[in-house]
């Protein structure tokens, strides 16, 4: 017989999770439509990229006026999910407005990283107001992360696992599974009701059967993707340091970064590398091969986010993986479309150190066909990417090469 206290606890978490999914879901849906509007407007008025330096100054002024100049972005969300570090509710409107502005004016940034900040800050504030204990507050943050990710990306299973896995790799808080899943599902269904995620996902062609020769090709591709994921993370961390060497003034840095993106866009001759890169992903999965695309997407994203513009790294990371995979795959005897999908999963896995979430992501984006090849490619990229990652607050507890506990080791920084 189930104890009364367990039933009461379950009922409370159902209430908390569904409430979080509803509120965070509504805000995330508005954010999704805001990004879509900004992208559509930019596509129709491509001259607007000339205003990017001024937009950067507006973003810095917004954060300065709210006393958030030293905001740590997604890293603060991870800290809140692991150790109940306090978050300010003002993070939500700030990341909401500044990310839309970045997309509107042609900066290269995603939306899911911003979603984690949206959901995490709102749920952390709610947990504080309800005076939840530290452990329960951490679960609330995970619920908010999962709800926002799910509403924006349309992947409720990935959102649930990612929120639990990304904080501390090697140790998942399973008590957060049901609340996070409920919040994720509520936000996802709400998004569907509001007209989002009506399409079945990305279309991938040329999916190969997992034979021994195919497996060897996928292992090679996964290893190469691991190298690119390390490079992506390295460049993302290096960019703000290079800006800091040029000038310590935040306004000068963001104006310089906006000018550089404006100049790069003019030199490239199109806006393929502005925004998150979803349109470019669809073109490459349809068979288009652009050899230089993965390098350009890394460059555009690093220059944008390193300067102080706001947004996420996840979709630019997926775009980079798709570009690299679709270019390399034909050299290995795989179709470019299938290679693009493999690259998306592998780079996501290598940079976030979330193998389970990466496998679920490929399933929800591309369907069940080819799941084993996707899982193999993700696993190779995870193992060979070492201890690099997008988020400095992420902790890896165990070695990727041996059953060794590294929580007290100096090997992982």
Helices and strands, with pairings:
Blueprint: H1 4-44, H2 52-65, H3 74-83, H4 91-104, H5 112-129, H6 134-153, H7 156-165, E1 168-169, H8 177-193, H9 212-246, H10 250-268, H11 278-285, H12 293-307, H13 314-328, H14 336-352, H15 355-366, H16 371-384, E2 395-396
Parallel strand pairs: 1-2
Helix pairs in contact: 1-4, 1-5, 1-6, 1-8, 2-4, 2-10, 3-5, 3-6, 4-5, 5-6, 6-7, 6-8, 7-8, 7-15, 9-12, 9-13, 9-14, 9-16, 10-12, 11-13, 12-13, 13-14, 14-15, 14-16, 15-16
Identify the notable features of this structure and list them briefly.
single chain; 413 residues; mainly alpha; two-stranded parallel ribbon; 2 strands; 68% helix
How is this structure best described in words?
There is one protein chain. With 413 residues, the chain is mainly α. 68% of the residues lie in helices and 1% in strands. The protein has 16 helices and two strands. The protein has helices at residues 4-44, 52-65, 74-83, 91-104, 112-129, 134-153, 156-165, 177-193, 212-246, 250-268, 278-285, 293-307, 314-328, 336-352, 355-366, 371-384; strands at 168-169, 395-396. The chain has a two-stranded parallel ribbon with strand order 1-2. α7 packs antiparallel against α8 (177-193). The protein is globular, with a radius of gyration of 20 Å.
């Amino acid at each position: 017989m189930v104890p009364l206290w367990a039933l009461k606890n379950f009922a409370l978490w159902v209430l908390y999770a569904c409430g979080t999914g509803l509120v965070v879901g509504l805000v995330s849906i508005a954010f999704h439509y805001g990004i879509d509007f900004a992208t559509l407007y930019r596509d129709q008025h491509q001259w607007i990229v000339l205003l990017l330096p001024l937009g950067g100054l507006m973003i810095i002024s917004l954060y300065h006026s709210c006393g958030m100049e030293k905001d740590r972005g997604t890293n603060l969300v991870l800290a809140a999910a692991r150790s109940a570090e306090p978050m300010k509710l003002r993070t939500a409107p700030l990341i909401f407005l500044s990310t839309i502005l970045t997309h509107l004016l042609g900066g290269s940034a995603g939306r899911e990283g911003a979603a984690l900040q949206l959901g995490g800050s709102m749920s952390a504030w709610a947990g504080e107001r309800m005076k939840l204990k530290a452990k329960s507050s951490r679960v609330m943050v995970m619920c908010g992360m999962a709800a926002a990710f799910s509403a924006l990306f349309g992947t409720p299973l990935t959102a649930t696992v990612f929120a639990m896995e990304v904080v501390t790799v090697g140790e998942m808080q399973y008590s957060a599974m049901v609340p996070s899943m409920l919040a994720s599902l509520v936000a996802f269904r709400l998004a569907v009701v509001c007209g989002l995620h009506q399409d079945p996902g990305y279309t991938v062609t040329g999916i190969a059967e997992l034979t021994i020769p195919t497996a060897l090709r996928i292992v090679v591709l996964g290893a190469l993707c691991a190298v690119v994921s390390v490079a992506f993370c390295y460049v993302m961390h290096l960019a703000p340091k290079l800006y800091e060497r040029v000038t310590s003034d935040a306004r000068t840095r963001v104006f310089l970064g906006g000018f550089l993106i404006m100049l790069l866009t003019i030199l490239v001759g199109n806006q393929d590398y502005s925004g998150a890169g979803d349109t470019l992903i669809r073109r490459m999965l349809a068979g288009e091969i652009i050899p230089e695309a993965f390098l350009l997407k890394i460059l555009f994203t690093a220059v944008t986010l390193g300067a102080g513009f706001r947004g996420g790294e996840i979709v630019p990371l997926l775009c980079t993986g798709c570009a690299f995979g679709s270019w390399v795959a034909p050299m290995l005897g795989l179709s470019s479309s299938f290679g693009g999908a493999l690259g998306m999963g592998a780079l996501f896995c290598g940079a976030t150190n979330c193998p389970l979430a990466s496998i679920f992501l490929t399933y929800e984006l591309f369907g069940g066909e080819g799941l084993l090849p996707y899982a193999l490619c993700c696993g190779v990229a995870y193992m060979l990417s070492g201890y690099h990652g997008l988020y400095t607050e992420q902790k890896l507890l165990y070695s990727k090469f041996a059953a060794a506990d590294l929580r007290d080791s100096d090997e992982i920084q």
